[in-house]
Amino acid sequence: MSGPETVDRALLTAAVVLIVIAGAGLLTRVWRGPSMLDRAISLDVCAALIIAGLGAKSAFARDPFYFPIMLVLAFLGFTGSVGIARFIAVRDRPKKTRQQNEGGK
Asked: What's one Pfam family the UniProt record gives for this protein (predicted)?
C-alpha cells in the first residue's frame, strides 16, 4: 500500500468509528428522549447516519453502487421528517375556547 492509500484507509476508519459513536448517542436519545419531537429528530439523524455509513462503505470499496440507494434514503428521511413535524404541529395546536369561538363576547 502506498502512502496516500494508507491515509485514505485511516481517515475512512476514523469516519466509521465516528459514525458508530454517533449511532450510540443517537440510540440513547431515542430511548431517553423526553418528548416526541426529540425522538422524531433522532430518527431523522438515524437516516443521515445510515446514509453516511453507506457512503463510507462505498468509499472503502471504491464502488458507486450505493449512491442511488443513498439518494432514496435521503428522500425518505426528508419526507418522514416533514410528515412527523406536521403531525406534531397539528397535535400540539392549542384548542380554541368557547369564548374565542363566539367572537370574544
From this structure: MrpF_PhaF
> What H or E segment, with its residue span, contains residue 32?
helix 3-32
In a domain, 78, yes or no: yes
Containing structural domain, residue 30: 3-93
pLDDT tens digits for range 61-103: 999 999 999 999 999 988 988 888 788 777 767 776 666 666 6
Query: Would you state the cell numbers that stand for residue 68, as one nine-digit string?
Result: 442511488
Banded pLDDT at 104 (limits 50, 70, 90): low
User: Based on the structure, what is the number of domains in the chain?
Assistant: 1
| Domain assignment present for 40 | yes
Q: Which pTM was predicted?
A: 0.75
The string of DSSP letters for 3-29 reads: HHHHHHHHHHHHHHHHHHHHHHHHHHH
d(CA 77, CA 47): 6
